[in-house]
Amino acid sequence: MGSNTLLDLVIFAAIAVFLVLRLRAVLGRRTGEEQPRANPFATPDPAFVDRAPVAAPTQLGPVAAAPSDLPLSLEARVQNLRVADPSFDEKHFLAGAKTAFQMIVQAFAAGDLGTLKTLLGPSLYNDFSAAVEARNRSGHTLLTELRGTVDADLEDARVINGQTQVDIRFVSQQIHAVRDASGAIVEGDTTQPIEIIDLWTFARDPRSKDPNWQLVATDQPN
C-alpha cells in the first residue's frame, strides 16, 4: 500500500470521527423543555397562553399501543391525554374536580341555573335545567348537604375526536331529602347521611385558550 493511500485513509478516518462527534453534539442539545402545567380549573397565565402552543406534543411522544389485544394501562392512557394536553396535571385536576363537584351538587339543589351553565356541557346542562324546572313545577324542594370530605379518584382518561375526557369517581357522605309543597318529606332523610358514589366525566378542547373543564356526563355505578 502506497504512502499516499495510507495518508488518504487516515484523513477519511479523522473526518468520520469528526462528523460522529458533531452529530452527537447536535442530538445532545435537542432535549426540549417541559410545558408549564397549571390547575385546569384556574385562569392560565396570559403570557403562557400567548407564547406556548396549546397542544404541542411532549418530548416522549404518544404512547404506542401494546402489540397484544390487552387494553392500555391507566398510566398509559393518562400519558396519551398529556400528549394532547400538556398542561394536564393529575393532582391539580383532582383538586379542581372536588371543588367543581361541591359547587354542582349545591347549585343543583338550590336550582342555581346560572352556576350550572358555567360548569356543565350544553347537553348535560339541558338535562339538569329540565330537572330543576320540573321540580319547581311540582312545588318540591331538594335538600342536599355534603358531610365530611369528598374522595376523588381518576378512573379513566382518553382523547376522542380531539377532545380530552377524564372520568372521576367521587365518594361522598350526603344528607339527601325531597320536601313537597307543604314541607313534608317525600323522599330521603334529613338526619342520616348516606354514602353516594358518582362517576363523572369532565371534558375540554385542548386547542382552546379556555383552561376550564366542563362536566359532560354523570353516572352512579352499582
TrEMBL record:
Q: Where is the Tim44-like domain?
A: 74-220
Q: Name one Pfam family in it.
A: Tim44
InterPro entries for the chain: NTF2-like_dom_sf, Tim44-like_dom, UCP031890_Tim44-rel
Work out whether the entry's keyword set contains Transmembrane helix: yes
State the Gene3D superfamilies in the record: 3.10.450.240
Record bears the keyword Ribosomal protein: no
Known SMART domains for this protein? Tim44
Keyword set for this entry? Answer: Membrane, Transmembrane, Transmembrane helix
Which spans are transmembrane here? Answer: 6-27
Query: NCBIfam families per the record?
Result: Tim44_TimA_adap (NF033779)
Give the protein name, as stated in the record.
Tim44-like domain-containing protein
Per the UniProt entry, what species is this protein from, by scientific name? Roseiterribacter gracilis
Query: What broad taxonomic lineage does this protein's source fall under?
Result: Bacteria, Pseudomonadati, Pseudomonadota, Alphaproteobacteria, Rhodospirillales
